[in-house]
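Homework help board

Subject: predicted structure for assignment chain

Our instructor gave us this sequence and asked us to write out the predicted structure in token form, then describe one feature. I got the tokens but I'm not sure how to describe them. Can anyone check?
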Amino acid sequence: MSICEKCGGIRLVELFQSPYEYLRCIDYIKAMIEDGDFELVEGNCALDEVKDKNGQWADDIIYHLIKCKKCGKEYSCCCNTYRGGGGFLAGR
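My token output:
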């Protein structure tokens, strides 16, 4: 599958180095969806609810899958909030 002009500029993250980096990535994903080029396919919580009002993570593992509306390529964002790690990568 070739990369379309919408997918060509995506900033992927091989490994989140901090919770802050993960939260910045979630904001980036929300912006891509709001721009209308990508859609949320699935996730285990809402993008606005990765942390609750008390600052607690929604789950030990949080994931979201988005898809480009133009070419159909999927991108996954997964974070292990208990042990650390995760990333934003092409594919499932």
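Reply (TA_rk): Your tokens look well-formed. For the description, you could write something like this. The mean pLDDT is 93. That's the kind of observation they're looking for.
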